[in-house]
């Protein structure tokens, strides 16, 4: 269920080697000057000592921390899965879900049998008129087919949820995968069609029938992709805001019975909704009217099959891994089953599992220290806004109003989500997954027309990530990320501001980036900038677009400076604000005091760089550069420090060295 593509800080980091300062200076790559390539200088030794594990396509400190958290969760789940009369309801649910997922022998014996009732439901479709009811059922069990539907805060009144209809239904990572004409993209498309064919063959189809079905799926998905809005265009909130009545939707798409769909999915008491991409809905209508019933059934069967594959027998699991993890991402080995099952429990029962995680990994004193760091960053941003030479007084007043209205959510929800109505059965892995998704769908759909709960979380407590939500004006930090090396309550401020401090500031800055700045303090989509201030922002943003578009991601693939603009603005503003907040805590003597031979400012920059150390496959870097709004790790580090005169001063860099940009970019 879609709520809103809130701006999230992704691809973060994990475990660190600690000395007194939280850093180990002897692990720096001293063959590379910090002024030549700070990322290589700070991370070179780590990169050599931490090669990619076989089951990973990306291995960085984010992934290490995630693995540490998974190990904690595994212990919780294995204990809960032992059973016994003394288990709580929550322990029964997470334990039986995990136990069923781990029962590989039983799953292999069943083959594709657990999927047969749903496949039969698709085969029994006897007319296109019944298609809306079938798609509604598939959406209830979280099968992304044709399009997406769910609640989202009203852009013009963010205190209430409205219905939202959006593009979806593709099997490749993004629409552009269907149209790029370079050799690598053509190869990936060919392998995707082969993968679809092999999956249908595993269901029992002949090679000829499976080949024909694969061609049908690819044709339908390509038509949907052609109508889909590009990633860069979707960055502008105005481009995905098209409120209309249900009657207007019916005029836009007359060949699909939308009222029947809304009735069947359990949300028909509205007459107004947002249609993110009207062009996609027109393309969808053409697919429904132009494709045969049999080919539409094939398409739906494919999406049911591919999204259920991780909980089917080994041949399906291996084939799914072969395309999505090997071909697209470059991983060499399947992840151990326990890791896959831990991830599924966290996804479907995250706040049930999260309660136990918080008790083990996030003490109250950590939350108190985090709130102190947040206050320091907010103070720094306030000073920065007041001092901006390019922003008028009127817009500054609105910006300060928005800053003071930001709500901070740290660690975990004030009230845990209720899963009491969800039935989890031992030995029914796929059934548990579908029932969990149906339970969550019902919860989401019930929001439409109701008030937005600003205390709700959209990440689970063990998640190693953070996000800013522009429609709620909140920054959100799950307990999973509030661990070393992001954050260590036992260390001094310098490494903490370089790590979690920069992340806090990153998220706050999202409220004022190319997307977030278009939402007011109350979360409504509203123009609160003067015309001159907006023009000044766009001119300064162009500097970042140009800078990051120069970077090569891998082979012939460049970074997309327009796609990554928001994250680059947040990275640059985030570290600058972390520096300001750190300076505010230090007197003259404190600024000069060294720990492990490093000044506080140097420790701040090392703290920033070393959390991004990461090895990746070429395939993963290619996919990230083409689909992810975040720049790659090396560019995130070097791109930021090269814009900061404070870095040049801290490491005595010369103006002609690579880490000093002649045309430095700066907004915040």
How would you sum up this structure, described in words?
The structure is a single chain. With 668 residues, this protein is of the alpha+beta class. It contains 27 helices and twelve strands. The protein has helices at 38-49, 61-80, 89-102, 104-110, 116-123, 131-140, 183-202, 207-227, 231-234, 246-252, 258-265, 278-290, 293-308, 314-327, 337-348, 350-361, 364-387, 393-405, 429-445, 493-510, 531-549, 565-585, 588-592, 600-610, 618-627, 633-641, 645-650; strands spanning 7-9, 58-60, 147-154, 157-167, 243-245, 272-275, 407-411, 466-469, 474-478, 552-554, 557-558, 614-616. Strand 8 (466-469) and strand 9 (474-478) form a beta hairpin. The protein starts with 6 loop residues before the first strand and ends in an 18-residue tail after the last helix.
Write the layout of secondary structure elements.
Blueprint: E1 7-9, H1 38-49, E2 58-60, H2 61-80, H3 89-102, H4 104-110, H5 116-123, H6 131-140, E3 147-154, E4 157-167, H7 183-202, H8 207-227, H9 231-234, E5 243-245, H10 246-252, H11 258-265, E6 272-275, H12 278-290, H13 293-308, H14 314-327, H15 337-348, H16 350-361, H17 364-387, H18 393-405, E7 407-411, H19 429-445, E8 466-469, E9 474-478, H20 493-510, H21 531-549, E10 552-554, E11 557-558, H22 565-585, H23 588-592, H24 600-610, E12 614-616, H25 618-627, H26 633-641, H27 645-650
Parallel strand pairs: 4-6, 7-9
Antiparallel strand pairs: 1-8, 2-12, 3-4, 5-6, 8-9, 10-11
Helix pairs in contact: 2-3, 2-15, 2-16, 3-15, 3-19, 5-13, 6-11, 7-8, 7-14, 8-12, 8-13, 15-16, 17-18, 17-20, 17-22, 20-22, 20-24, 22-24, 22-26
């Amino acid at each position: 269920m879609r709520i809103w593509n809130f701006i999230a800080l992704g691809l973060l980091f994990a475990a660190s080697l600690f000395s007194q300062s939280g850093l180990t200076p002897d692990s720096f790559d001293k063959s590379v000057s910090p002024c030549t390539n700070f990322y290589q200088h700070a991370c070179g030794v780590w990169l050599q000592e931490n090669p990619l594990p076989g089951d990973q396509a990306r291995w960085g400190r984010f992934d290490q921390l995630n693995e540490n958290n998974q190990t904690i969760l595994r212990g919780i789940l294995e204990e809960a899965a032992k059973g016994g009369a003394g288990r709580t309801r929550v322990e029964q649910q997470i334990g039986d879900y995990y136990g069923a997922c781990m029962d590989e022998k039983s799953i292999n014996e069943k083959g594709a049998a657990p999927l047969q009732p749903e496949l039969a439901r698709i085969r029994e479709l006897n007319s296109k008129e019944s298609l809306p009811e079938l798609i509604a059922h598939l959406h209830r069990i979280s099968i992304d087919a044709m399009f997406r539907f769910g609640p989202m805060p009203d852009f013009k009144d963010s205190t209430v949820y409205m219905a939202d209809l959006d593009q979806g239904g593709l099997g490749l990572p993004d629409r552009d995968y269907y149209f790029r004409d370079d050799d690598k993209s053509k190869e990936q498309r060919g392998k995707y069609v082969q993968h679809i064919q092999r999956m249908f063959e595993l269901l029992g189809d002949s090679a000829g029938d499976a080949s024909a079905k694969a061609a049908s799926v690819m044709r339908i998905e390509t038509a949907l992709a052609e109508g889909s809005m590009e990633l860069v265009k979707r960055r502008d909130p105005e481009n995905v805001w098209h409120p209309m009545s249900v009657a207007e939707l019916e005029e836009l798409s007359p060949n699909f019975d939308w009222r029947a769909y809304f009735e069947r999915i359990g949300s028909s008491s509205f007459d107004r909704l947002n249609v993110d991409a009207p062009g996609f809905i027109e393309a969808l209508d053409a697919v429904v009217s132009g494709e045969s019933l049999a080919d539409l059934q094939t398409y739906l069967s494919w999406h049911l099959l591919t999204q259920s594959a991780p909980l089917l027998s080994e041949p399906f699991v291996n084939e799914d891994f072969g395309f999505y993890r090997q071909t697209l991402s470059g991983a060499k080995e399947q992840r151990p089953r326990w890791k896959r099952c831990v991830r599924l429990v966290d996804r479907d029962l995250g706040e049930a599992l999260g309660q136990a995680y918080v008790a083990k990994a996030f003490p109250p004193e950590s939350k108190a220290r985090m709130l102190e760091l947040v206050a320091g960053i907010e103070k720094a941003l306030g000073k920065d806004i007041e001092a901006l030479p390019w922003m008028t007084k009127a817009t500054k007043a609105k910006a300060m109003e928005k800053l003071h209205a930001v709500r901070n959510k740290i660690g975990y929800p004030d009230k845990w989500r209720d899963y009491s109505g969800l039935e989890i059965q031992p030995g029914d892995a796929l059934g548990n997954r579908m029932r969990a998704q149906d339970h969550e769908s019902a919860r989401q759909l019930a929001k439409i027309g109701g008030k937005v709960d600003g205390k709700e979380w959209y990440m689970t407590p063990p998640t190693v990530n953070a996000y800013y939500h522009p429609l709620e004006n909140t920054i959100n930090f799950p307990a999973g990320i509030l661990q070393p090396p992001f954050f260590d309550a036992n260390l001094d401020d310098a490494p903490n501001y370089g790590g979690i401090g920069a992340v806090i500031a990153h998220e706050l800055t999202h409220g004022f980036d190319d997307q977030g700045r278009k939402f007011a303090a109350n979360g409504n989509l509203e123009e609160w900038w003067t015309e001159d201030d907006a023009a000044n922002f766009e001119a300064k943003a162009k500097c970042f677009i140009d800078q990051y578009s120069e970077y090569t991601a891998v082979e012939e693939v460049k970074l997309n400076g327009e796609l990554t603009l928001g994250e680059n603005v947040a990275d640059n503003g985030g570290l600058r604000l972390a520096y300001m907040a750190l300076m505010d805590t230090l007197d003259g003597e404190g600024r000069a005091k060294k720990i492990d031979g490093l000044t506080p400012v140097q420790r701040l920059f090392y703290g920033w760089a070393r959390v991004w150390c990461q090895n990746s496959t070429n395939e993963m870097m290619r996919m990230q550069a083409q689909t992810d709004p975040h720049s790659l790790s090396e560019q995130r580090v070097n791109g930021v420090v090269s814009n900061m005169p404070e870095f040049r001063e801290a490491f005595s860099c010369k103006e002609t060295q690579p880490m000093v940009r002649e045309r430095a970019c700066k907004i915040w």
